[in-house]
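Cont'd.
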Amino acid sequence: MPTVIVLDVSLSMSRPVVIPDCSEEYQRKHLAIHGINCFLDYLSSNFKLEFTSLLVFSFLWEQLVPFTRNYETIKSALNSVEEYNKTCIEAGLTGASSVVTEEWNSVTPSQVILVTDGRTGIGQRSLKNSLETWNQRENGDEKFPLPFKFPCKLHIMIISSPNDPDIKSSLPLFEKLIEINGQGGELCVPDNTLTLQSVEAMFTRIQEKFYQPYNGTLKCGNFKCSVQLFPPPDPYDLIQEFEEVHQQVSSNLEILGFIDIADIASPQALSRHLVLPLPNKDTKTSDSEVENKKEEEDAVQEEGKIPSFTVLLHGSLKVEGMVALTQVAENWYGILYSWADSKKKSNLMLSLLEPGPEPISWIGNIANLAPISDFTEPPYGEDDNKTPFPIRPAEKHSYAQSCVVWIKPSGLQADIQKVLRHARKLPEKHQQFYKELNRLRRAALSFGFLDLLEAMASMLDRECTMLPGSAHPDAALQLTHAANALRSESATDIAQMILPLRTNFNQDTS
Amino acid sequence: MLYPVEHKTVFVLDRGPQFARSCKQSIEYDVMSKTKTPGIIPAAPIMKSMWTCNVETMIEYMRIVFDIFSSKRLIRVVVGDETLNGWQQKDQNIQQVMLSLGQVGPPSSKSKEEENVIRGLTEAVQALCDPTEQQQEIDRDVIQNKGRIICLTSAKSESQMRAFEECVSDAIIQHNQLAEDSVSLLPISHCELVLVHVTPVGDETKITERQNREISSLLFGEVHVTQSAKFLYNKLIQLVQFHYGLSSTTVTGIPMKEEQNASSSANYDVELLHPSQAHDDIMKSAHSDGLVIPSKEGLPTETVTLKWCTPKSNVVELQYCTCAARITPVDVNSRPSSCLTNFLLSGRAVMLEQPRKSGTKVISHMLASHGGEIFIHSINTARSLLEDPPSISEGCGGRVTDYRINDFKEFMKENRLAPALPDMTSTGVSHMNRAKVHLERMSRFWPLVIGETIIFNMASHIDPLPTIIVKEKLDDEDVLECQKAIYHVVGMESRNEPLPTSSAGPRGKGPKRDEQYKQMWSELESLIRAHADTSPQHQRVLECLMKCKKPSDDVKSSPKKTKEEKMEVDPTAEQSYAWKELDRFQKMTEREKLEMNKAEGGASSVKKARLSMEETQFKTKAGACNLLSLWTDRIKSVHSKRHAEFSGRAQSDGNQAELYQNLTKQLQENAGLDASAPVQKGLGMQKKM
């Protein structure tokens, strides 16, 4: 869940701030940086794996720090930001969109935190102007970056006093931005006055709402283990074809059973999450986590030595090449498996599948999966030599059966040649000949291609004249019979079949 | 809710006389005459009729839709007033439609004119009012019934085209009124009318194409103009891609033996269609990387080229796929297509690589078949969020090295899932809950590491007890097997055999042997007790264990708890137990008595010894397992099945008949003791003996 911090560095950010009871002189920029630093501190203690990038903008934009987990580099970059030009919010958003698209795939959910002073800029590239034209841009114009082309929340932090008259008019514009993006996010304004504390509180709000680690319990029968998922799974809200789905991963991840990797076969996944075991301290809850932090660090050594179910599960899944089918919410499933990164560091991973009863078509409806102990005949065979998967669809697809397509001449030629090949080997290929002939005839009737019947008949006639002297007498009889049948009245009746001619030669065999 | 318009499509085929005309494009069908074999009379050239072109193009449209959407997108075909198939699943296949078309037959050049299209369009509107199976499952009040009508026709004039549109518009209003009052019909809330005006190849036309526009609040219409044959096909392929959001991928460089010359191989390309989602990621840069080219099959569409990577091994890996979508080849019967599909259907997977001129190899897609369906999987190529994660060995429990991996492998295998068979569905309990229940039962007593367990390290000694006890139902034979296993361990203890404890355990040097046995017994008890409630048979196994188990273990560790447990196990039998024992002892033959006394001073059974609560020295009692008593117990239980129940026991409240009732009374009177007296008294008596 990468985060892009988009910091406004236009000149207006260096306006001084009058803070009551404070002798030091601050600029808005300083307050913004203070807020961002608090946020980074929070990440490094609670959200260590979050990739974060720093981008600054005024009239143009620049990525100062690429996506990193080393938040200190961002902090030091913040110390040296300079002021530039006038504000252009659109430039900042374009920058954010561009760096995320560049680095991550289109399904990685990300968050953009825009930090600005609430000035919307002036002139052609002002926010007001951007919003007036955002959905009427011609092909040649630069496209408006919102809505983002990837799942992304947009948070806007206004470093300004809420009572500033300018803000009153610009807030609706910022709200409009979040609305256009339509993927959630928050517009934050400091409470009451603009102080270090109120800015900090604003960032805390975002942290608490959008950067909460997921803590839950992994269950497998009587095995239980507290785990953290990273990144925390997002709620799933999607308007599907026939229903609206709003789902949230529950705090209980319950294993339903196991399936071989070969059977599950690389299904489509919504997202992947590392499953990190948490120490099994009975009463420890997330509220007291901060206080417990120190103890925890001391205890790390100890924790490594206390057996954990996740480690056992991971090891076994890895060795056996299996996945654990896991229920993460009502009607929502995922698979747990061992995953190794390029450095061969192994980890337990949860892939969330599309919510719904049948997320993988070749596994079928999850509710229809039964434990193998319920079967009278073992579905995997006595010696584990077969598998009940994949589920086969009722209908075969066109490429798995011989369908007739004559749109290109080559398709028709191939089908005619097939008949003729068998015709030349009469009477041995008797059955195949009539089978192919009837297939061709049926298709011709379905397509209303009646001319083909006559054409085929004359080709059979021609074959007949070309029969070598050594040919079996039955061959000529059958060819003439078939040609006549194609020309007969009943040839256009699709319910009829052309039946082989019963002759003295084939009576015994047929 | 989206209620996609492409959920329902109705094709209307114009069966007017103009479609009996030739499409004016002759077909090469006589391969022989080209070989210039002497004496061959070349076959007369033939042409498809415009009807034939319409039908086969429509069938191709349907083939693509059915292959890719497998029952999610439905198509009906209307000819004149006749609807050839229904919305039901059984009707949604090409064979069904082909058969009906064969029965309908091509139009004749003398057939009646316009009427047939007007009637067909009205029929199509009615077909859209019929609910599909999926729509029937949704609340009528919220559903939006949308659909598309594609009409392949040939209009005389623009005004006739407009007449068609008006006809549909009126029909919708009329049918919606009908549907309002009907339970079985759904009113149409949105309809798209695609009129395709077809002319013979090379003919001029007066009809102009028209973009999609609103005809009424419910109807949107567009007009396409095309020549027949190949042009019509191109038009419909373009439309099917647009209507269903499909994209094209061309797999390039497929090595294939040449048809004529099997020893040499050449590279072929195959173009596939699939939902556009499979290209979501690649399209970010596909244009700039030159991956997008005009279709190699000559379609008026674009395709993304991806290079075939010859599979190296059959090892199945779990790929992180952001999309898995069904495909269908554009030219399904061509040799390269069928080679590719057959290869995939045989179970092999093919990775597809982006053909880049420089930089590293990027594998972005995979083709694989699952259950006879071929899918294109998009493999994640972007940077992973989970880059450089902490290894599991660095986290909680990561330092532990003696996890019971092998045992858990078995556990996983036994808890695999399989699709339930139709005859299993009537059990009432959902399969998923059955699976959860099974996991629960299998994991009731399951130590995580080798160092924490003894019984699971001595499989050869206690098998098959651990596998039997977790079963849902036990038969008598299972119980016997378990009992045998328990007796076996008793035997081991009596012979003072070493137990296979892991010396690598966290307790450092191995504990003393008697300590080990103590641990072993308590483990075994935990295991069996965890299942004792499952059935009376399980209870019997527990009873057997409790009889055999060394008593003082529990007594020493937590006497109070043991007592409670005991009561729980055997509340009624406890009091009269001593009496029963005494009784049994008296019934023994002299020889048995002798042996028993020899083995263990006075205590006739383990159970009793435990009750005495005096014994702390169980070293001396090592022989106390008293195989003999156990054996006779068992023999008795076997015999008891074969004879009539002793009437005294049959009348008593508990399982046992109380003998010498007078004696009890007397004793109680004498001593004035509480309810536990008989037990102690019994012991006292026995001691004297």
